[in-house]
Structures are given as structure tokens and as C-alpha cells.
Amino acid sequence: MDAISFVLGIRGSKLRSADLKDLIYSETAMHEDRDKNITKDSPSRASVTAVIEDVKHSEHRFQRTVTANGSSEYRYNGRITTQNSYMGKLEQLNILVKTRNFLVFQGDVESIAEQCSKDLSDLLDHVSGSRSLKLEYDRAHTAYDEVSEQSAGLVSKRKLLQGELRQVRQHKEASDRFGVLKADLHYHTIQKILWRLYHIQEIIEIHSDWIEAHASRGEQSRKRLFEKEQLLAEARKLLGNVQQTKLNLENERKHVIRSLDTIRPEKERLVERIDHASRKLEQAQFLYSQANKDHVAQKEALVHLEDDTNLVQKCSEQIKRDQEAALANTSIKLSEVDLQTYHDLKLKSQSTVEGERSRVERLQRESRERQNALEAEQDRIQEADTRIERLNQQLQSLTESFTVLERREPESAESIERSKTALAELQREKERIILRERELNEVLVGCYNRLLRMGQDQRVHERETRLRESLRSLRTIFSGVHGRLMDLCKPTQRKYELAIATALGRNAEAVVVNHEKTAVECIEYLRNQRAGQATFIPLDTIQTKLINDRLRSLSPQARLAIDVIQFPPAVERAVHYACGNTMVCDTLDVARNICYERGQRVKAVSLDGTIIHKTGMITGGPSMQETIKKWDDQEMQGVQRERDRCMAELKELQHQKYSLEEEDDLVAVLSRAQASLQSIEAEKSDLLRQKNDLVTECTELELRKKSAQTVVEKTNSALTELSSQISHLEKVIYAADDEVFREFCLRIGVENVREYEANQLQFSQTLNAATQQYQRQLARLAHQRTFTEQQVKSTAARLEFIQATIDKEMYRIPHLKEELRRCEDQMHSLRESKVRIDEALQSARHEHTEKSDALNEKRKIVSNAMRDVDAHRKEVAERNDEIAQLDAERANMYRRCRLEALDLPLISGDLSSVLLEENVQVPGPEADDAVQPCRSYDITVDFSSLSDADRMDRGSSRERELQRRIDSAREEMENLTPSTNTAERLDSLEKELQACERDIDDCREQVRDAREEFELVKKKRTDLFMKAYNHIAERIDGVYKELTKTKAAPMGGVAYLTLEDSDVRSMDMLTTGTFSDRNPLPCDAPYETFPRHGSTFRRRKNYGSIGFAIRHPYVSASAFLCAG
């Protein structure tokens, strides 16, 4: 495989060697260090020759040689040639090196079989040579698309021109109609202006005559008002003096209460400080007595320790003197020779019975260690006894303290019970007063609410009257005002009154007008007249929704609100706006069924006034149309008497509340008693805790003492055992020593050497042992004395600190008691002042009530007089405002005629005298009863063109008729869109359309030429692709059968290649190419070895033949086998 690839021009990087020189065969090629094993006999060149026979039976010889330095040499028919020429000769035989269509490598069959339809189509496109035409195909396709888009653009342009031409022709017809409508609009506008100017002049004359006739009545009303106001000023002055006195007394009372509130915490703080100082003094005295007892006991223990120390020192010195005297009397004197002999024999004896001697030394060492441990345990036992004795003393002291606290605890508990009883009684009394105050306040609230409703109903009645008067004035002054919506409509049956009033809601009081401009003018009029507020519904601008007819059939017990209301046709839009799709239901259950169960998003109102909103929220309440109740004076006086009685009882309850003992004092006493009891309980718990700790510590010390005694007993037993072992071993050692020292002992006159050593060494050892014992006792006594001295110093310092605390508290308590006495005297003085001020304040309040009642009577008289003056002044002002409003409206009409160039018929004057500025100041009336001056502009209008019907009809129906004619003409004019250059635009569009038709004919010729060129290239490419496809599809099955024949399957397998879409002829549109192999007979699985055929290589070569046939359909199988 490598040889074929090499001779047919495959590069070295595509072969299985890193370098071309690796292809040269050498015996040492498998050695690790190949470069070192190269010999002179190793080959330096290698070549491969391929002989190919073409269809004309001519042979072509190709040879490629590689040298040791890795360079290649190419020969064709024995002649050296270049690589490019070599490759060209191969391409002439249809062997393409780049596409490798001459050889099937390992893995190519599997990769081809696993390719998808699109990849397999790309492979056939490449092998067939169809891809070489791709650039020409893309260029022709692009050119065809461009001319197609250009043709579509021209067609679209023609459609636009035709539509625009149609619109221009319509505009020309509209321009002719617009001229006719413009003349009609001018005539109807002039007629309406003349009708309105005539009635404005008529109304102004009526108002001026009324004002002049009623001028004297206003003068008389103002004179009566002046006299009543003088009497009211005198009563107000008297009330002011009383009120100032009352205010001063209230301020003085607040100051006293504020002072009491300021002093009370100081008093509580002083009482708390005195109690705290007393408890602290008592506790300090108790602690001083306990500490003094401890101090005396510690001093006595220190004296005993000093006596014991002196006694031990004396005993140590005495035993030292006795031992030295005994040693001087019993000493044996030896010569130098005997001493040397003793030492030599001692060395000799050490070498005998060495094992026993070492065991004795070990046992003696162990005995000394156990003796030291025994002494340490005995010291611990003594220390435990001392500590237990001290703890017992502390337990006795704590028991005494606990007994004192138990005696104090019942006293504190009794004080708490007394304080709680007094506080409970005080709180019950206050609760009774508070409950009664609450009842009286509820009665007062009811009285005030009734009085408020009486006054409010009166005000509502007055407001209703004023609103009706204002509405009557609006209907007189402005045309197009229909009235309130609730007055214009009524329910079909009485049972729907509450539901309809609820459904209309806030729109029930709204005023219905024809135009938004009228609503703005009415609002301005109400603002100028100060006549209150009103909501307006303009019929020309409100947005109404269509009625959903499906809702009428939802339930027989529910109906649309619009269906149960009677109203004039003129206000139908306003009723639709206020009600919409609101449903009126007989019961709340029906409303719930519609809104919740059926899921209808509508507002439903039941007959009792309950509303279910679109959001699902339910609201309800009293009727909006509640009638106004007329309250009589007798009932109002009864309510006022009830109010005064409740106020007097409330004042008495306040006086009783002030006379009660202060609750804060009792709370403070109770808090102090509880704090004292809590302190006692805390001290008791602390003492119990300390006592438990001491008991626990005593128990632990007893356990330690028992444990130490057990250790002492075990140590004594061990020491006895060690002594017996040492005695047995010493007998063996003594026998050996007696044998060595026998002659020496006879010479110095002792029984044995131990007698000599005892005389010489016993005294010094005894003295050392006694000295060490006394030193240990002295050290222990010194340690105890140091600890006791520290305790004495600490207790003395504690006594000094406690004594200082006692002195400090003894000094503080008298001073605090003196401050408490001064504080109580000051509070007593303030309470007396408060009682005196309360009595004076009660008298001032009574006088203030009398003066207030007198002032209210005078205010009522002045109010009645002022009401008459205001009524006359308001009537005159309303008429003057209406005159001014009408005058302004007339001026605006003159200004409109001048600005819009309307030919208003005049008898005299000229519209040029009318000013164009709107904000021209008009002087007001000279007096309250004078007539508002008007602007005449010296213009007299000619009303001769008005008919008698127009002169007599001043209502809104005639105005609506005139406005309807104007709106009809204006609406038709607005729908028309005339243009001044319609004819010129029509000619230019016709010429442009003709030019577009010519461009479309030329573009069609270009599209036809581009399509023919594209189809030609497309056919060439399709033919190449289908030629390769047909060749492979016809031969692949026979080749595969030959390669897969076996004894078990003599027919072989089946292989085929198909097109999923046989109609597709372009590679850009070919989507699927399928390669499939089938083996209907039992045979070996793909890519497994063929043991019957001999080797795996043969199978791969056979499959490679199939892949070669797929890759290049123009190379025959014989040529391939020859090359192989």
C-alpha cells in the first residue's frame, strides 16, 4: 500500500513514515540507534515502478526513487522528469493524486459507508468533475436572481403608480365638492351667530332692568347687618376676656402638673436610693461580722504555726548535739595500715555475691521511693483535714446568713401583698371611672353626630338649592346644557330606584352638556360665581362602549341597567357612558352566579344596592338617594341638653380621678418591695449554691482522704514485703563479708565488720535521717505559715473595705432622707395649688359656657341678616356675571367673524373696531347694586334675516338644529382632502406610468436570456454528476457479489446506491445519496477476518476494490488489479 502510494506521487506526510528516507530497506532499521549502525553495505536508494495499461493497450511506466538524504527522483518511461510533469501524466490517465481516486486506504470504505446523504453527494460531485462548474453555475444563478428582482421591483412600481393615479382622480372630484360645502358652511355659521347675538342682547336687557328695580332692597339689608355686627363685637369682646382667664388657669394647671410629674420620679429615685443604701449597710455589717470572725481564727492559727515551728527547730538542734556526743564516746581508732587493709578487704568483698548485692541496692532504692511516696500521701491527708475544718467553719457562717434571710423574707412578702391590695383597689376605682367616661363619651359622640347630621342635612339642603339655582342659570346662559343625569332619567319601576342610583354612582350628579367647550365655559362660570363644584359629561367627546347583547339572555332575573332606565334620546350617549354593561340583578345570589360561576367580567348591582365589581370585589352600603330629614328646633335643644349633662358628669369624674391617690406611688412601693424580695431570693439562692459547692468540696476531700489512706496502707504492706526480701538477701551478703573480714575483725576486736561500720556510720546516718525529717516538717510549717499570713492580710484588707462601705452608707442615708422630706413638702404644696386652680378653672368654664351661648345667639341673628344681604348681593352678582359672560361671548363672536372673515350683516359700525386681544380688561360695576357695563364697539347687527321662529325660540333644541347643519357640512368637508395641484399631478403620473411599462418590457427580455444561460450550465453539471452516479450504481452490486461469495453464500451479498429524490438534477438541490449493503445469505460480518479465505489482508483488499470503484468510476477493475 505504501509502495503504490509512493510511486503515484503521495507526499511523505501522508504515508506511515516520518521521513521519506525511512522507506529505504535496511537490516539495521529495527535497531534503536539506527544512525550509528549504518555501514557501507547499507542501501542508499530505493525505488518503485508502476506499469499501467490504458484502454488502447499502451503501457505507461512510472518510477519514483528516494535517496538517503530524503530527496525524490521522478522518471516516466525511463526518462527523468519534474514532479509537475510526472503528476500531469498521471492526470492524463485519470489518476488524481490530490483526490486519491486510484487507491482505497484502510478505513475509507467504513468512512464512505457512514457518510450521510449530503456528504456522499458532495463526494460524487467532486469525483465526477461537476464541482469545476460550480463557479460558473453560481455566477449564472446570481445574474438570474438579480434580473428577477429587478423585474419584480418594476411590477411593484407599476402597481403603486396605478394606485396613486386612482387616488389623484378621487382628490379632483373631492375638490369640486369641497367648494360647494364651504359656501353652505359659511351660510349656516352666519345664521347661528345671528341667532345667538339676538338672544344675548335680549338676556342682557332683562338682567339690567331687574338690577335697577331691586337696588333699594340691598341698601336696607346692609344697614340692618351693620347694627347686628356692633352687638356681636361687644359679645365677642366679653367672651375673649373670659376665655383669656380660662386659658391662663389651664396653663397654670398644666405647669403644676408638669412640676408634679418632674418631682415624682425624683422622689421615687430618692426612696429607691434610701432602700438600696439601707440594704447595702445591713449587708455590709453582716459581712463585717463574718470577716471579723475569720480574721480572729486566722490569727490564732498563725500563732499556733509559729509555736510549732519553734518547737521543731529546738528538737532538731537537740538531737544533733546528742548524736555528736555519742559518736565521740564510742568511736574506734584505727591506724593507717588497718584503714588500708579495711579498704582493700572492702573492695574484695564487693566482688563476692554481686547478684545479691545489686538486688539489695535495687530493693533499697525502691524502698526509699515508696517511703517518700508514703510521706507525701500522709502530707496530703493532713492538708485535707485542715481544708475540711476550714470548710466546716464556712458552712456554719453560710447557715447563719441563710437563717437571717429566711426571717426577712416573710416581711417582704407581706409588704408586697399590702401594696398589691391597695393598687388593685385603686385600679378598680379608676376602671370604674374610665368605664363611665367611655359610656358618657359614646353618648357625647352620638349627640355630636346627631347635631352634625342636623347641620349637615341643613347644609346639604342649602347646597342642593344652590346647585339647582346654578343649574337653572347655566341653562339660561349657555345653550346645550341638559341638566343633571339623575334628573334626566328615571327607572321603569320603583323597585329599581336604589339599584339605578348605585349603578350611576358619582355620575348621577354630573351635568350633561352637548359640547366640551360648553362644559369648560360652565366650569369657568361656576368658578367666577363661587357657586361650588360640578361634574360635566360632554356628549361629543365621551367614549362609550358597545352594549353586549349577549348579556340580556344570561338570566331571567338579571337585565342590563340601560334597559330599566327611561331617558330622552338626546342624552343616550351619557346614559351609556354612566351605565355601560352594568347588570341589575334581583338578588345577590344571581349577581354571584353571573360574576363568579359564569365568569362574566361585568359590574353587577343587586336591588338592595350591593355591587360586585369587575375585579370580583363586593361593596355595599346605604342608599345614595337618602331623603333629607327636616329637623325641628325642639329635638335639637333636647340633644344639646343631653350633651351638657354628659359634659357636667365628665367633669365630676375628672375631679374624682384627681382626688385619688397617685397610682405611680403605689407602683413604686410595690416595685421596691418586689425588688427587695427578689434580692432576698437571689441571696438565698446564692447562699444555697455556695453551701452546695462547699458540701461538694468537702465530699471530694473526704474521698481524696480515703483514697490516700488506702494508698498508705498499700505502701506500708509493700514496704514490709521489701524489708523481708532485703533481710533475706542481707544474710547471704553478711555471710560472705564475715568470711572476708574474719581476720581483720579479730585483730581490731569486733565481732564482725558490721559492728565496726555501725559504730562509725550509724551515728552519722541517724543524724542525717533525723535532720531531713525535721527539715521537711519546717518546710511544711513555713508553707502553712505563709498561706495563713496571706489570708490574714487579705481578710484585714477586706475588713477595711467593708468598714469604708459602712461609713459611706451611714453618711449617705441621713442626707437622702433630708432630700426626700424636702421633695414631699414640695409635692404637697403643688397638690394644694392644683386643687385651688381646679376650683377657679371650673368657675371660669361655667362662665365661658354662658358667654359662648350668648355669643352664639348673636351670631345667629347676624347670620340671618348676612344671609339676606348675601342673597341680594349674590343675585345681583350672578346677573352681572351672566351679563359679563354674555358680553364676553358676544365679543368673541365679533372677534371670530373678523378673524375668519365672516360676512356678518351690520346696520352700523365696522368689525375692524373689535380688538383681536382676548385678555382685554373690562371695568366692573361701580357699586354692588350697579349694572355691569358692556362693550358695544358702536356696532349694530342686522337681525332682519332671522325668522320669527328663531326670535321666539331661545332653547337648546334650535341651537342643536343649527349646530347639526354646521357639523354635517364640516364633517363632510373633513372627510374630503382637496388639493390645489391635482391636475398637474395627474398628468405627471400618467407619463410616469407609460415609462414604467416600457422598462418592464425590456426587463422581461433580460430575464429570459439569464434563465436560458442558467439552465444550460445547470444541465452540464447535472449530466456530469448523473454519469458518475449511474456508473457506480450499475457496477457496485457485481463487484460486491464477487467479493463476498463463499461456500455458505454462493450468491454473495447485495450492494446498491440510490437517489432519494430522482427529480432533483442540481447538486445544490440534491439532498440524499444512500449507500447500503445487504447480505441475504449467512456470511461473515463486515470488518471481521475471513478464516475460509485465508487472511484479513485479502478481505481488506476486496473491500478496497469496492471503495475504489466508488471513488473513480472511470478506472476499470483490471487496471486497479494490475497496479496492485
UniProtKB/TrEMBL annotation:
SUPFAM superfamilies reported in the protein's UniProt record: P-loop containing nucleoside triphosphate hydrolases (SSF52540), Smc hinge domain (SSF75553)
One annotated GO molecular function: ATP binding
Coiled-coil stretches noted in the UniProt entry, renumbered to this chain: 228-287, 636-704, 952-1020
InterPro entries: P-loop_NTPase, SMC, SMC_hinge, SMC_hinge_sf
Protein name as catalogued: SMC hinge domain-containing protein
GO cellular component, one term: cohesin complex
Keywords, comma-separated and alphabetical: Cell cycle, Cell division, Coiled coil, Mitosis, Nucleus
Matches recorded under PANTHER family: STRUCTURAL MAINTENANCE OF CHROMOSOMES PROTEIN, STRUCTURAL MAINTENANCE OF CHROMOSOMES SMC FAMILY MEMBER
Source species of the chain: Malassezia globosa (strain ATCC MYA-4612 / CBS 7966) (Dandruff-associated fungus)
Region (Disordered), start-end ranges: 358-378
Domain of life per record: Eukaryota
Annotated SMC hinge domain residues: 479-595
A GO BP annotation: sister chromatid cohesion
